Amino acid sequence: MTTLLLLPVAGPLLVAGVLLVLPGRIRVHRAAALVTTVAVLVAGVVLLVGTADGSVPVLRVGGWPPVAAIGLAADALSALLVTVAALVVCCCLVSAVGSGDDRRPHFLPLVLVLSAGAYGAFLTTDLFNLFVLIEVMLVPSYVLLSLAGGAGRDGAGRVYVATNLLGSTLLLTGVALVYGTTGVVGLGELAGAARDEPLVAVAAGVVLLALGVKSALVPTHEWLPRTYPVASPVVVALFSGLLTKVGLYAVIRVYAVVYGGDPAYHWLLGTVAVLSMVVGVLGAVGENSMRRILTFHMVSQIGYVLLGLALFTAASLTAAVYYLAQYVLVKAALFLCAAAVRAGRGTDRLRGAGGLATVRPVLAVAFAGAALSLAGLPPFAGFLAKFLLLRAAAEAGAWLAMTVAVLVSLVTLLSMLKIWSALFTSEPPASAAVAARIGPALTAPPLALAAVALVAGLAAEPLLVVAETAAAGLRDPAGYVRAVTGR
Amino acid sequence: MVGVLVAAGVYLLLRPGQLRVVLGFVLLGHAVNVVLLAAGGLDRRTTALEEVGPQTADPLPQAFVLTAIVITFGITIHLLGLLRRRGGPEPTATGGSAGPGAAGDPAAPGRADPGGRADDTRPTGEPS
Fold it and tell me: Considering chain A, what percentage of its residues have pLDDT values greater than 90?
């Protein structure tokens, strides 16, 4: 069980290294990347089953004592996110075959390194390794963003690199300050430190701020809609499933463990959450291409997850974990739909020809499912996620946040309808040439993800149980701390 | 020392010009490295390689700094590479009309559509 923890981090890195010395063999690359990711997916599921009872397998690489070791640990939250991320990467790899993105030089090794960094960040047990693994994840993303991008990619690339570099510098400063005030960087050793000592709270606050930049929380969200839409939609799907979610996961983990869920800061998180929801969804209203609308919605959806963290009750944390898991899948499905639309029409702008529903009904079904889930309509997982979150908000008496969340859902639905009517239903039907370019490799991945969202909504019990276990671990991190510190 | 480095770094970041931004990040990176080293408690420690005791220099921040230096170095190279390519202008959140990014070169091609219509390597679909 514990050695399995190494696979998501080391496996993709090793395979990426081997692939780099075998350039030009696209079939080998595709097969190796897919097999590796499926292996990680299987490992994630095994970990998920193994952590369902609340146990936390820990691996200290090289067998060093806890302070010096590179520790990897999986509780239910980490295992769930690794599984979900691996599923998204799988679908992106298939879509990349269809859209031709993976023919670009070094595309697949870069994706593997990026995914390894993300899995590692979900599993790591100390702040400094979190920084290193986030860098492992970001460096390929710098290249991917400008590699497969369209016009304006260099400018966007510079904005992206500069913002993330500033975020990383801030993160490293925060880690240094935490080390300076406490003498440790392990999450286990730091448990509750920020709740007990104001000095540590300030230091960890710098870490949280940096992670907030990375997860594009308002008011540090501006870089996201400026940079993501430039990249190819498959790459954006990958980024949306991995990059900002790692930041969000780290915010949740650091707040739950280092701050011990300190109620003194709930108002701050709540304000940021509500602002993110509103600003994101309003930004999307004025946009006119599928990718831009969807990136603005990312900001908005991140706000929902953060609202669950801000309330910090058992119900709201369950809702947040469930929301995060389904949202990653749904968002990736929508971006992969955008990839299919763009492969067919050469652009994903809303103006001009539409009518894709008649020639590619499968794609339309996939988009409709994912869009309804994003807007939070039954019977999809998004509905249950929003329902749980709203109920938790009502129980906690956060009526303002609840009202905002409902209104934002309505505007989200409006945006999705806008895309739907412009691209899928409008007359005349899309030409045969457009249809021919949208192959099954492009329609199958979003359909699969939308199907998962449907199943997760109809038969929610297993996922809910996992989310409850994860929430219990966040509310009372004693078990995690004991496992990680080895005491 | 950290203050001076950060001040200089931020000043350079806020100046126009891409090279200054890169240099600003280099200075900021140095500042963070100094903070990391100081976090080990330089003033109350002796040098390493003598007797090992509670006063011996803390090796952990030094390992951190080494890692951080390598990462900063790699990213600096990447930034310089981006600088050399000098492709399109900065995108704007408003869909490519004139914006704060107009400080680049206004005559660059494709600035009307950061959404990717001018992508040259893929099949172009119907005109939109």
Answer: 47
